[in-house]
Structures are given as structure tokens and as C-alpha cells.
Amino acid sequence: MLRSLSGRFLILTVLFVMLAEVMIFVPSVARFRQDYLLSRLERAQIASLAVLADDAIDPDVEEELLRNAEVYNVVLRRNEARQLMLSSPVPEEVTETYDLREASPLVLIRDAIQRLIDPEPRVIRVIGNPVREAGLLIEVTMPTAGLREAMFDFGGRVLALATIISLLTAAFLFLAVRALLVGPIKRVIGQMQSYAAAPEDARRIIEPSAGITELRAAEAALMQLETQLTGALKQKERLAQLGSAVAKISHDLRNILTSAQLFTDRIEQSEDPTVRRLAPKLVNSISRAINLCESTLAFGRSDEPAPRLTLVPLAELVGDVIDGERLAVGEADVSFAEDIPATMTVRADAEQLHRVFLNLVRNARQAIVATGKPGEISVSAQEDDRAWVVRVTDTGPGLPPKARDNLFTPFQGGTTRGGAGLGLAISSELIRGHGGQLMLDDTGPDGTCFRIVLPKMVVSQEDAAE
């Protein structure tokens, strides 16, 4: 109850109403005290007028007049003369004098609080203006016991009334909040839970119906979010189905093309000049198709393992890649250079890092061979306290604009003619799995430079979770 929105609203309402009543209570009690004293002055004035009407008033009558006025004595000032109109023995010394003629509200509040706090009965002197200007002033001496009891009685009735008002107000507000705010919020929560159970079902998308402007805006935003999420899930499902179909097609097509590649060996032995001239083109086309199928299958694998980090001799790994590419150069004029410290070791997955360097060096070699001009491919490495940095540079023709714009996008960032654009996308994904980055530093007519950054810091599972 206390942790719910309506429960806390109920408590706050009671507190605020009580605070408002307390702020009203203090001035009300001060006003009550002032009226109480003025009524005693008025009674005393009436008694003094009776004395003025009959100078030879009986002592018993005088005592009764004072008792009815609840005062000890009455002094009336008329015509600049101060006259003791009624008098009786005062049981103790007068302790305070209160002049009501020019008392400010703050003074009245202060005096009222002091009277409530002080439990001892006192004798006080009260001065005020006579009713209907029947004199210059009237002064009485009176006890405070009756005044304090009357103030407590009045204050108790005010607090009781305030408590009843606050409880009724809080109850009405509690019911109103539950009906107008808590109820619609619970409906939205229930709808969200229903949608979470089957987000692909468009029938579960919320329809804004709240009468409160802010809540209706929240429902509209939620409807838009759920609509987009449902569409994205459907698209993801379609893409997954399409990817599965493409993988199956690529697998079968690769097998067919592999068989066709075997037949081209016989075609190359033909004596027909036209066949001998066209056979290499056919072989190249089939090889590119096989590479496309293999790349598609590699990219579509969902079981790509996480990197198994070990200390890998970088110079040895890069040397293996370059040795293999030297054999593939054939008669082309392509040279290779390595600038890697012999003792440098990096923390990486050797197999995955080999795939990355093979892709970068092979792309560079193919780009240079395609120009028919001499070229050079160099791999250099350096390190600092935070990371290992490796650069793969070539003197080829540079990347075409389309490749630069979609460099690491699958099927769009191909760097060579007939390429699928998967090599760099896969390489970038593998490097990210190491916590590093694969970046294009520069490309242009004078060549291209890729940079690989592998961090040295090992991130713990706790830090990764944060």
C-alpha cells in the first residue's frame, strides 16, 4: 500500500492538508484569544455602566457584576480621569499587561502561543477601547485559567474538524487518482506485458485511449515503438529465412561449380583456338563464383567462435601469409616487405588473425595485379603501452568510391571486380571480437593503407558487464 502510487499520494495529501490546517490553526487561536479578551472588556464596561447609574450599589451586587464579567476589577477612563468602577480582592500579583488597542497580528499570535505553552494560572491586565466610545479606555484585571481552557477547547475543535476534512479530502483524492491515473497506468502495464508475451502479434499493439493528455501521449509513443519493433521482428524473421535459403543455395551451387571447374581443365586442352582463348575467362568466372559462395557461407555461419587469446609471434604469422601470396603472384611484378620486430608478440587468436592478414594482403595483391603495373605490399607493426598497431600498405590504384562508402558493409563494399564485399566485413568483425579496430587510414591513386589496432588491456567479465 505505502509503496504504491495511490498510497503515497494519500499520505502526502493528508500531510499537506494537515500542514495547511496548522497554518490556519495558529491565527485562528490568536483571533479566538483576542475575541475572548474583548468580550471580557465589553462585559466589564456593561457592569461599570450599571455602577454609574447607581452610585450606592450594594457590595453583593458589585461582586455579582464582577463574577459575571469574570474579572477582578474594572477601571474606566472618562474625561481624562481614571476611575476605579468595580473592585474585588486580587489573589496574586499582576504578571502581564496586554494592550489590545494597537496590537499587530504577529503580537497577537505570539501572545496566544505563550498562553498555550504556559500552564500556570496568572493574573493579567487587559486594556482596550470602550464599546461605542463610552470613554477613553477600559482596563480590567482578570485570571488566565478560564482563557487557557477556552483556547484549548477551541483548538481541539479546530483540529478535530481539520482531521475530518483532511481524511475526507484524502479519501476523495485517493479514489480520484486510482480512477483517473493509477487505473490507466495499470492498463498500460498490462498491455505491455501482453505485448511482451508475443511481440510479433500486431493485434497486441496498444491503442491510445487515455483521457489524460500526458498519458495519452505516452501511449502514442508506446504504440509507435511497438509498431516499429513488430515490423523489425518480422523483417528479422524474413531475413533469417532468406539467409538460410541463400546458405543452402550457395552450398549446392558451390558443389555444382566445383564440378564445372574440373571440366574446364579438359576444355583448356582443346585444339580449337576460340575455345583456348575463351577457356581462361570461363575458368576465372567459375572461380569467382566459387569464391562468392564460400564467402557467403562463411559470413552466414552463426557459430563463429569467440577468439581464443594467446601470445602469437606476429612476424612469423605475417611471414606465413606473405609466403603464400608470393606463390600466387605468378609472373606479375609484385614485391613484399615486412617491418615487424622479430620478438613482437600480440595477444590474439592466431587463426582469426591469419584470416584478417590474408584478406588484406590478398586484396592488395589482386588490386596491383589488375593494373598490370609493378607494385609493392608492405606490413609494418609497432607498439606502445596501450596497444599493438599494424599497418598493411600497398601501392595499388586505391579503392573505388563505392567501396570507400560501404567499406565494411557485407555485399556492398567489394574492393575488386566480381568480389562479394564480405572479406573486409568479416575481418572487421573478427578484429572487433578482439576488442580492437580495423580502419582505413588512406586510399588514393598512390595506394591504400589499412590500420589494425589491438588493445593490450585485458577486460574482466565484471568490467565488461558494466
Automatic annotation (TrEMBL):
E.C. number(s) listed in UniProt: 2.7.13.3
GO MF annotations in UniProt: ATP binding; phosphorelay response regulator activity; phosphorelay sensor kinase activity; protein kinase activator activity
Record's keyword terms, sorted: ATP-binding, Coiled coil, Kinase, Membrane, Nucleotide-binding, Phosphoprotein, Transferase, Transmembrane, Transmembrane helix, Two-component regulatory system
SMART domains: HATPase_c, HisKA
Pfam family, one: HisKA
Catalyzed chemical reaction(s): ATP + protein L-histidine = ADP + protein N-phospho-L-histidine
Gene3D superfamilies documented for this protein: 1.10.287.130, Histidine kinase-like ATPase, C-terminal domain
Residue ranges of every copy of the Histidine kinase domain listed in the record: 248-458
Enzyme class name: transferase
InterPro entries reported in the protein's UniProt record: BphY/WalK/GraS-like, HATPase_C_sf, HATPase_dom, His_kinase_dom, HisK_dim/P_dom, HisK_dim/P_sf, Sig_transdc_His_kin-like_C
Gene Ontology biological process terms, A to Z: osmosensory signaling via phosphorelay pathway
Chain ranges passing through the membrane: 6-30, 158-181
Ligase found in the keyword field: no
Organism field: Primorskyibacter flagellatus
PANTHER family (alphabetical): SENSOR HISTIDINE KINASE GLRK, TWO-COMPONENT HISTIDINE KINASE
SUPFAM superfamilies, alphabetized: ATPase domain of HSP90 chaperone/DNA topoisomerase II/histidine kinase, Homodimeric domain of signal transducing histidine kinase
Residues in coiled coil: 215-242
Name of the molecule in the record: histidine kinase
